[in-house]
Amino acid sequence: MKLMKLRATLWLLLLISTPAVCPGAGASPPIRQTSTSWQLDLPDHPVSRRISLRSEFKGKQTFGTLIGPGCIRRIWVTGNFISRKDILRIYFDGETIPSVEAPLPDFFGLMHNLTQPGKNYQINSPFLSVKPKLGMTCYLPMPFAKGARIEVESPEGSIVYMMVDWHDYPGQQLKEKMRFRARWRRESPVADFADDFIMLDAAGPGRLIGFVYAVDMLESRHKMRWSHGGADNIYIDGLGDQPSFLRGIGGEDTFGASHGGADYVPQTFLYSDMPYYIQKDAKGERQKLVGYRFFAKDEVHFNESLHIRFGARAHDISSTAYWYSEEPVRPYFKMPPVKQRLPQTKILRGEYDLPLPDSGSWWLAGPFAKVESLPMRDGKFNPKKSFLDRAWKKRDSIRGFVEFNHVLRPKASNANSPTLDGWAVAYCKLEAQSEMTAEFRLAWDDHLILKLNDDPTVDLGSQPYIRTRTLKVKLLKGTNKLQVWLSNQVGVTRGAWNFAFRATAPNSRIILPRSE
User: Fold this and answer.
1) How far, in Å, CA of 486 to CA of 500, rounded?
2) 110-138 b/e with 16+ CB inside 10 Å = b?
């Protein structure tokens, strides 16, 4: 009897100490459901693989040729003599244009060529990691269907250690169409308080992952604060059905910092932060900094296009942008020679920038106190003649967006992202092959009014933030003249002053606006 009681007691203790198991609790969830997979549709049963290699080389060196279907899960790099001179390229599925092209350290978020072991700053995020003595890791998943090739080009020679951990899917099918993309760009000095620093241009559909942004101040903060040239300006689907525009307040706010960041203590957090922030002089008049921002919890999707610029003053600025897209990379920046990759060298807008997709052009003028009638002597528009003492300025559309803030800015100052009040007008011509009923799709915030040819003015009203509206219009055969007036207030989108425009013919052909 005592033995039976002892056994019963032991069984009771075992039941109490054993955790309850719900059906499926011990099963690993599909990879696509994890928080670091960016909603990628990946097979459920991966086989883990690894490539690890040390190479002392000069010129181009292939570090891995992976056979698909698969997905790169982690890339770790360290070495000797690594610098911004070295270029990382990654190709997927037989591409001739690399999906990834960036200086090796900059790809991992290590900017300003701060690659001397023991002197580099550190990053601790779920996506990028930089440790003391130059241990650099990327955890962003990179799927491929047929294959992947990882290449490093070192023009002067270096020693590189690399580990690539990836998932192989033998006998399975990769349904995911998105591919990982990354691009680097540098400009020094940026045109002061002008049309912003170009960070990214991509065709959709896709998703924005994030970016790393680096500033080396060339002027005193008392004269030219880095943070008060503006912030992130994200143009989404300008020629699509539902355009959107995301605008920040100040540069430091993009990275979760505040109040100018002039005395910011460098730190590194999960999704956004500024891991590097130093005073370049004893008085603290010039800073050198790096910020990163990942859109993991506030996803940014795009269907037709994505374009990102960052408000900037005349400093040395560079960035690395990361995104997923179905369409191959359309290069918008050509990798400059070694000298112009390095800090303290000049590289101006246009030297290595490639043309952006053509989405039309307009004449812009303003600001005005109210909407006025354009003088049309003999039915002709003369951009050489000022309108109410305001000169006309020609600007290309930005993926379907017309941006007044790039030409109607106040005098550059240390005010917090200043903007002008009033009305501005955009003028263009629309060429129709025949008389037709076309569709105009406009998206805007504030108050928008348009006038087509000699038709009555159409007041589309005010909106608190950018929303879309479509309307049917009669186009004459030949040249049609369009005016779009838009007011500007600081508002809930912090001084956004742009609209997105698309004109569509009955045969679904887009009619591009032309300034000439």
Assistant:
1) 11
2) bbbbbbeeeebbebebebbbbeeebbbbb
pLDDT digits (tens, 9 = 90+) for 311-352: 999 999 999 999 999 999 999 999 999 999 999 999 999 999
Model confidence, pTM: 0.92
Q: 233, 311 in Cβ contact below 8 A?
A: yes
- Domain 47-341, CATH: 2.60.120.1390
Neighbours of 486 (CB within 10 A): 24
In whole angstroms, give the CA distance from residue 305 to residue 502: 14
- In the numeric block, the tokens 């100490």 are attached to 17
Residues 6+ apart with CB under 8 A from 104: 77, 82, 83, 84, 86, 87, 88, 152, 160
Per the CB < 8 A criterion, the answer to whether 43 and 173 are in contact is yes
Domain 361-514 in the same topology as domain 47-341: yes
Beta bridge partners of 431: 479
Q: Are 319 and 199 in contact (CB under 8 A)?
A: yes
Distance CA 441, CA 418 (A): 29
Look up the CATH number of domain 361-514. 2.60.120.380
Domain extents for the chain? 47-341, 361-514
> Encoding tokens for residue 32?
């696509």
Q: What is the pLDDT of residues 24-66, one digit of tens each?
A: 333 334 433 344 579 999 999 999 999 999 999 999 999 999 9
Task: Please write the tens of the pLDDT for every residue from 285-321.
Answer: 999 999 999 999 999 999 999 999 999 999 999 999 9
**Residue bearing the bigger pLDDT, 15 or 72:** 72
Cβ(179)–Cβ(99) under 8 Å?
A: yes
